[in-house]
User: What shape does this take?
Amino acid sequence: MGAVRESTWQATHVGVNAHLLSLAEGYRSAGISAYIFNLLRALPAAAMEMEYTVFLSERRYGGAPGLQLQLSRLPTSLPPVRIFWEQALLPWVARREGIDLLHNTAFVGPLASGCPTVVTVHDLSFLYFPESFRWLRRSYLQIFARMSVRQARRVIAVSESTKQDLVKIYGISPAKIDVVHNGVDASFQPLPADQVAAFRQQKGLPDRFVLFVGTLEPRKNVVGLIEAYAKLPKERPPLVLVGGKGWFYDEIFARVEALGLTGEVHFAGFVPTEELRLWYNSADLFVYPSICEGFGLPPLEAMACGTAVITSTASSLPEVVGDAGQLVDPTDGEALASAMARVLDNGDLREQMQSDGLAQASGFSWENTARQTVDSYRRALTPAEEIHSV
Assistant: This one.
């Protein structure tokens, strides 16, 4: 196969819709916001010939070399305002800035974009679990995501699982979809024992504990985790839940109280990214029994820190963890409890899982994510007749 002519994408001006980027301390800075933040950091080096303009409203974001920032005056952290900006104002702003290609980083882009588009789809949980979303966000995604991916030149799926969902539910051609996995930052790594010990002492943590990291929301299956934890023998180590409150989280706290686990299950709340690696390093075991994940970044971060991981067989998680972790049906509380007990009681097994996890995590980086994203841009900018001629 011949190479696509390089002139097709030279000096291309790419616009990046980053209005879901948030640096606030809370659940909004996790997940999609983390994807946007890390992608922006790595994009300029992935294609030096490209020019990038980032559209956002997060004034605390300082940018990165090679990025031009276009800050909106509107408070687009409010969903109705963001929807108005996205559909009514972004096309006009993109034309004014001379954008050649618009990358919409979270499901939806303007339907009248005026230029070729690429859209990233993280998952279709708003279709699988509509009850887990507030009605405005759910309705907007259900209506506009379908139209956005159909009109896009290329669609980026963050996992093979999400790609298959797009093919099955939206009828998108597999040839139009690029699977681009998320990465893991190099700061997530095994840390010196004395540094970890000092952190444990500072936070009042025991030598052994089980860790969960994620937004407190229904699809993370935190209630299922708590119920499985309650089945462990009484000498079990504490369970620490790290993550901000998302939505419909009251049942989580109610279940802890109903099971008499108030003294054993601890809520650490939102944790800044720079501190998160210390939590992973301090834990004996990381458990993430999510029901639906487009990618599942916490298990990858935990493996990169050398922590044994138990996660679920659902959606993309087997892709991320591979053979390095224990995979359990998230709806089977007995199986989850059994897996937790087995790993906690077997030091040799934990050490093997830690070693395997480090090897598995080494295959993911944000630099790879950025390079593959640029490849998707280039495919989107290649005329159809040029593709067929190579």
